[in-house]
Hints:
This protein has helices at 13-28, 46-56, 66-70, 72-87, 127-141; strands at 2-7, 32-35, 59-64, 92-97. The protein is α/β, with parallel strands linked by helices. It has one domain: Rossmann fold, CATH 3.40.50. It has a 4-stranded parallel beta sheet, with helices on both faces. Helix 1 packs across helix 5 and helix 2 packs parallel to helix 4. It is globular, with a radius of gyration of 14 Å. The relative contact order is 0.18.
Amino acid sequence: MKNIFISYSHIDEKYKQQLVNHLSPLIRTHKVNIWEDGKIVPGEKWDDAIKIKLETSNIILLLVSSDAIASDYINNVEIKKALERNDKNEAIVIPIILRPCKWTILPIAENQALPKFGKPISKWEDLDDAFLNVINGILKIL
């Protein structure tokens, strides 16, 4: 079973939840275990929890939007650690482009993005088709 960490801006919660829903067949068949910060329990130190899960995940999904790019925490902690682990071949980092933004000039652009051709999910005529494209991409690395 692969552990997947989802990095996202809380402004993109609806997209994150749709992604988790589309990942549910992989969860139910015990191919993946999903972690995102919504699983932090009351009283738990959130920064520690995030860093531990980042360090122990096999696959790190970066949900990319202008809000995620604008977040200091996402960039300075989550993306930084994800790319370090990717460079050491300890984890696979996949940018998932949610909404149009200038992500192609950032270091994450070196990693192949999903959906196909980096077309933002919000620009697909059918969001389910976009998320299916993402899931099929993830299946290729499982």
